[in-house]
Amino acid sequence: MGSPSRLVTGLRLLACVAGIYGAYLTQGVVQETLSTKKFGPEGVRFAHLSSLNAVQCWVCFAWAALLVALFDKR
Q1: For residue 53, which of 31, 21, 37 has the smallest C-alpha distance?
Q2: Tell me: the pLDDT tens digits for 5-39?
Q3: 34 closest CA partner among 50, 21, 58, 57
Q4: Which of 36, 47, 56, 61 has the highest CB neighbour count under 10 A?
C-alpha cells in the first residue's frame, strides 16, 4: 500500500475528475432543457445558446485563474 500522501493525492484527483464530470453533466442537462423547452406565454425557445456557452467559458476561466492565484504554492 502507498504512503498517505499518495492516497491523499489520489483522492484529490478523483474529486477533481468527479467535479469536472459533474460540471459537464450539469451543463448538458441545462443546455438540453434550454434548447428543447418552450418559455413564456408565446412558447418561444431560448435562442442564445452560443452566448450562454461563451459566458460559461469566461466564468470557468476566471474561476480557474482565481483558484490558481489562491492556491499556487510557488
Answers
A1: 31
A2: 989 999 999 998 999 899 889 988 988 888 889 98
A3: 50
A4: 56
